[in-house]
Amino acid sequence: MLKTLTSALMGVAIAAGLLAGPAAAAELTAEDKANVARVERYFNSITSMRSSFLQASSTGLVARGTVWLRRPGRMRFEYEPPSPVLITSDGILITYQDVELQQTNQIPLFTSPLAVLVDERVEFGDQLVVDAVESQSNVLRLRVRQRDEPDQGHVTLVFQDNPLALKQWTIVDAQQVSVKVALLDPEFGIDIPNQLFRPLDFGKPGDDVGR
Q1: Which residues contact 173 (CB under 8 A, 6 or more apart)?
Q2: Domain residues of the chain, as ranges?
Q3: 96, 87 Cβ separation under 8 angstroms
């Protein structure tokens, strides 16, 4: 359960180099570049967010939970039962934990395409590359990958276009299994305590790592 859910959501397989690379990118038009600039401004205006989410994969797996984001670098994905998954980021590492099995795995935050959600400043074109833009029916989609590691996968960000608002993202793995995470009730600019982004320390029951 832990491997399936965490690989789908945040890219454990990306860190291991198991995700398919992006399709050949077409050159962005002037309109595409203007939309990319809008998305940059949108992300850079966000300081924090909380939302319940629904996660669904093409294999039929469905899960719910709550996500907290705080820029720069902080994330927490907490799944509802029966899933035992907890995912946290302290700005350096993403930590994946199975609470029932008391297992922990960590990868560097920068290896996940979803680092774009919590980068200190979002600027596409340097390390993060937008290689596809689609705008239609008040929906804007951007496919993002890492320039230096193009074979480590990509994430498609989906926005409501007017007004611009992040609604969901999708990751597709090497077996073409897609996983979609939809935000249900996002709140922005809220206060989130530091301890929420600390992983559990299974060696000290009830404590958090870093305390």
Answers
A1: 7, 8, 13, 18, 19, 20, 153, 179
A2: 2-182
A3: yes
Average of per-residue pLDDT across 45-60: 94
**81-120: string of b/e by CB count within 10 Å (b at 16+)?**
eebbbbbbbbeebbbbbbbeeeebebbebebbbbbbbbbe
Tokens 């990118």 belong to 25
The pLDDT of residue 1 is above 60: no
Averaged pLDDT score across all residues of the chain:
82
Closest by Cα among 4, 16, 12 to 57: 4
Please state the CATH superfamily assignment of the domain spanning residues 2-182 in this structure.
Answer: Lipoprotein localisation LolA/LolB/LppX (2.50.20.10)
pLDDT in tens, 122-164: 888 777 789 899 999 999 999 987 777 656 567 899 999 989 9
